[in-house]
Structure formats: C-alpha cells, structure tokens
Amino acid sequence: MPELVEIFEMAPRDGLQNEKREIALADKIALVDCLSRAGFRRIEVGSFVSPKWVPQMADSAAVFAGIARKPGISYAALTPNMKGYEAAIAAGADEVAIFASASEGFSRANLNCSIAESLERFTPIMEAAKADNVKVRGYVSVVTDCPFDGATPPENVAKVVASLRDMGCYEISLGDTIGQGTPESVTAMLRAVLEEAPAEQLAGHYHDTSGRALDNIEASIELGLRVFDAAVGGLGGCPYAPGAAGNVATEAVNARLVALGYETGLDGAVLEEAAALARKMKGPQK
Ligand code: HMG
Ligand code: MG
C-alpha cells in the first residue's frame, strides 16, 4: 500500500481572499461543492476576520450555509479572535484555525498586534474550542522570509510553534507566506521546529511565488511531514504580504506526490474541474 500524503485544500479561503473584485456567492459555493467531490478530508471554506480588512471573506457564513456538506470532510474556518470564533461556530465550521506570525513586522501588518498579543487573543478561542469539542489548527506565517523583517531566524518559528503546541493546536501549519523559501531554508526551519513538535503534528503551507514550492514539499517529506496545504488553480496570496503570489497548485502537488509514489486519495479529473473553476474566478494579476 502506498503511503498517504494529505493535501488540505485552501482555495476557497487562502485562494480567494486576495481577489480584489467581488466574487459571486454562488461561484464560491460551487467551488467548495466541486472540491467536496475530489476526495479531500479537509477544506478551508472561509475566514471570520474583519470585513474591513478582507472584504472578500465577508460572506463566509453564507458560503458555509450554502454548501452541500459531504460526510467525512472537515470544513474549516480561519478565526483571529473570539468574535471570529463565535461567528465560525454559528456558521457551522467543523474546525477552526488561529494564525500567528514568526515575525513582528508581519504580525503587525496582518493582525494589527504583536506576536505576544496575538497569542493572548487566541487563548480564549482555545478555551472555548475545548469546551465545544472543536479542533483548532494553528498557522505560523513567514517561516523563512518576511516582507517587512527579512529572513526569519528558524528559532523564532520554533518558539511560536511551541506556543501553539502548548495551547493545544492539533496541527501546526508552517507558512512560507511570500514563497521565498528554498529547500535549504525550509530544511533549516524544519530542523528547528522539529525540536518542538513531531512531524506528525506539522503541515507545510508553501506559496509558489518563486516556483520552489514543490521542491520545498519534497524537502519537507524528507523530514517526515505528510500534510501539505495547497489551492486548486494556484489561486491566492495574502493581502497583507506584498508580493505574495498564489498557493502552490493542488493539481501540481497531487501530480508530484503521485509521481513520488504516494497516495493522496484525490480524483485527478475532479481536481482539474475545480482548478478550471478556480482559474475563472481569478482576476487580473496584480
Ligand atoms: P483591528 O482593527 O485591530 O480590530 O483588527 P479591532 O478589534 O479594533 O476591531 C476593528 C473592527 O473590526 C470593529 O468593527 C470590530 O467589530 C471588527 P467596527 O467597530 O470598526 O465596525 N472586527 C471583526 N469583524 C468581524 N469578524 C471579526 C472581527 N474582529 C474585529 N473576527 C483584526 C484586528 C484581527 C480583526 C484584523 O487585523 C483582521 O481581521 N485581520 C485578518 C487579516 C487576514 O485575514 N489576513 C489573511 C489571513 S492570514 C494568511 O493568509 C496567512 C496564511 O495563509 C498562512 C500563510 O500563508 O502564511 C494563514
Ligand atoms: Mg497562505
């Protein structure tokens, strides 16, 4: 039996959040419904952040309400604070994600607070999620390079990973937010992080700005990671990370993993269908 490597699908959230023009609710729902047929176990559907900060995600509750849920899939939402957590749970999110940064510059730009303050805001989310029996995933952004503070020291990433681990995140996703990581810098970062958390608790979230994301995934597999975030059609970017291009494309990750002899559980034909839908939603390159 080939070993399983899981792709966590990001297009409806990380993929669409950076699109400037308004995308119709029906198109967002159609994308999630198509993805639900592809074989994913987890799909990030939207985020419950300030609509002033990320207007494209303002209708996330309506997306959750409109999708045809398939049993066995966890439909996830990003939540920066208690207000977001409460809205995500009311909308029916199966799991939520909190998101921190490994650099102070990006924390300020993305969350309007320091790293320490962001972790404080996450504490009540963790408490509520525990009481509600809701799983919480953690993200760490700018794990190799920050658009504001330059190269990120691996020990800074490890420190934030340790905090998220201590808070009770079931998995921690390591974001190369601006896609500047190389197999060398990703490996150095992972070696530091693996001192704090086992590979089974980690995921790679690599944007593909420099075309190295697939190589970075391979380097991460070498160190034991078996979960990677990706978005069909290579959609996406972060509005608060200047120059951040799309997430690595799910269909490309799937093809590489299959070529390497791994099982992904995904249906390539449905992935192509979803990628075509995603590409139609993509506005002009910024
Ligand atoms: P702030 O302005 O400091 O917040 O933003 P505030 O508490 O002062 O509130 C300001 C206004 O926002 C208030 O409304 C609040 O009610 C409202 P007003 O009184 O002005 O009408 N507000 C909310 N509304 C809806 N939902 C909420 C919420 N919270 C406050 N949850 C805040 C702080 C965290 C809210 C803001 O900075 C924010 O929303 N940031 C999110 C930015 C974001 O979504 N970035 C992209 C996702 S992260 C990412 O893409 C990286 C990742 O993919 C990994 C990687 O690639 O590295 C995960
Ligand atoms: Mg991202």
Report on the structure:
The chain has 286 residues and is an alpha/beta fold. It has helices at residues 11-15, 25-36, 60-66, 82-91, 104-111, 115-132, 154-167, 183-193, 213-222, 250-259, 268-281, and strands at residues 6-9, 42-47, 74-78, 95-101, 135-141, 145-146, 150-151, 171-176, 202-206, 227-230. The strands form 2 sheets. The protein has an 8-stranded parallel β-sheet with strand order 1-10-9-8-5-4-3-2. The protein has a two-stranded antiparallel sheet with strand order 6-7. Helix 2 (25-36) runs antiparallel to helix 11 and helix 10 runs antiparallel to helix 11 (268-281). It is globular. The N and C termini lie far apart (43 Å). The model has no long low-confidence stretch (mean pLDDT 96). Bound molecules: 3-hydroxy-3-methylglutaryl-coenzyme A and magnesium ion. Magnesium ion is lined by residues 14, 175, 177, 205, 207, 238.
What is the secondary structure topology, with strand pairs?
Layout: E1 6-9, H1 11-15, H2 25-36, E2 42-47, H3 60-66, E3 74-78, H4 82-91, E4 95-101, H5 104-111, H6 115-132, E5 135-141, E6 145-146, E7 150-151, H7 154-167, E8 171-176, H8 183-193, E9 202-206, H9 213-222, E10 227-230, H10 250-259, H11 268-281
Parallel strand pairs: 1-10, 2-3, 3-4, 4-5, 5-8, 8-9, 9-10
Antiparallel strand pairs: 6-7
This protein binds 3-hydroxy-3-methylglutaryl-coenzyme A and magnesium ion.
